[in-house]
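Q: Convert this sequence to structure tokens.
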Amino acid sequence: MIHTVFRAGAPHLFGAEWKTLLEANDWLYSLRSEGSTRSPGSWRVYAYALADYLAWCERTQLDWRKVGGVELDGYLHSLDVADETLNHRIAILARFYTWWVSQGLVYGSPFQFRETFVRRPGFLSGSVTRRVMRPTVMRRVVKSEKVSVPSAREVWTLRAAMRSWRDELLVETLAFTGLRCSELLDLRLEPFLSAQLNDDQASLMVKVVGKGRKQRSVPFPAALVRNLRRYAVLEREHAPGAKGSDHLFLSAMGKPLRPSGAEYVFRRASALAGVAVHPHLLRHFFACHRLKYLTDLGLGDPLGQLQRELGHSQITTTARYLHLTDEMRARIASGHQDFIASIARGEKRLDSNDAAVESQAMRRELHGL
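A:
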């Protein structure tokens, strides 16, 4: 049996009779000391994943130092987890074995690695950005990995179903900035209260701490900044305990809003509105519309700009939104052509009101406004 204990946020693994698992703990400590991960949440995930694997080795009476590819496949097939979770487990174990091979404790890894070239899309650059080694069993590509993007109609339907000003701003902030939910809840009050916006200023750059405690600057639209400031002054400060917290979004008890609380807010509003939109889908929504906007501006590297705004380590992660943006353009163009065709066939009569409605619908779909 493997025991997982956390002391001051640091994970410690123990075996039978609470014997310290030195090699496992050495690797976990190396993740933090070498800067591989600075996120406490990631550290916990790595510890639990490794503990599960070592427990399986113990049950099957295998020495993890001598596990081969066949035995590793047996472990992977024993997991009853989602495909994304399985891929993450494989990545963690690959890092674990690679580190111990480099330390000389293990002479061979159960993973076979291949060289992979990661390129930027051709219309941006034909150059190779980096060369990485991937385990041959790294990925299980399935339909569930397809990125889902809600429509503008679904996003604003969700916003209308929110019960409070704070909850509406949760939707707006995610949709207009592309923040992760954890980044949203970690926003502080000071940048918005001290912001000095000129009348012609389109956005405010706000520093955000993302995965791995990496800091980046994210543009917040000026209108959103003003809304957040009004919320902070008119509503937030009246919450119990608000004076003792510098977090922007607080719970009803005046404590920093937690991920579970935000998930409940979205789940309740989604059920009420009849749409399936959770926080991370709003990040996809932002990414597609933002990429289209940056491309239309004629910037030299719109994908790279979006990568920096989203905080992606790999540009290949950001590149997923390229075909979605193209699909969005095609869908909008098709819808507009159908509208014109219905007029040509005499099925619809165009007047000034119809034109205004159609123009507004296109703006909403194109820009999410």
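The CA atoms of residues 84 and 145 lie 7 Å apart.
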